[in-house]
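Margin note from the TA: students keep mixing up input and output lines. Inputs are the sequences; the output is the structure of the whole complex. Example:
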Amino acid sequence: EADIYQTPRYLVIGTGKKITLECSQTMGHDKMYWYQQDPGMELHLIHYSYGVNSTEKGDLSSESTVSRIRTEHFPLTLESARPSHTSQYLCASSWPEGAITDTQYFGPGTRLTVL
Amino acid sequence: QKEVEQDPGPLSVPEGAIVSLNCTYSNSAFQYFMWYRQYSRKGPELLMYTYSSGNKEDGRFTAQVDKSSKYISLFIRDSQPSDSATYLCAMNSGGSNYKLTFGKGTLLTVNP
């Protein structure tokens, strides 16, 4: 079982609030990812990191930002939450550098509701 | 056209049935194929991965890839109520590209 943790699991907040979703992994994986998942839709990659101080935007445009100061930690921040940000946010990490396949392991997700 | 197409179901079967879940894809560069299982209100968990064409078996699960048809399948034998979940296919081209492209997922219910 993968050791990747997300907090909080559920968050209900008002419009305009700043929030940070936490993601940590203890496997020493270099690569980490944030996905957005809406009911009945594909997982969409919104951010990824190949290592410390490396962050890139994913395929789906997002108003969130990420940072990667430590290998094990990849937080996602929304400066001003809006109802359109309501979704499930999934964090994942994958095998260290040099692996031939990208076997990603997911955390339990944060379900965000913005009122 | 989406790169990966997956019938969202829902699919409902009796316990003990053989289940077939399928995805088609359009990008001929895809070489690595994964199946994830996602229980309600949980993150996806990796079930199996395969490289290129052929079959791979793990217990009651068999993953099959047909690159000539751009078609992948996951078979579940002797299905159990605990198999009730959403099954997601995912794939990438490997090499320096570690990003995955996912299907929408198929919701499976196995009735006791």
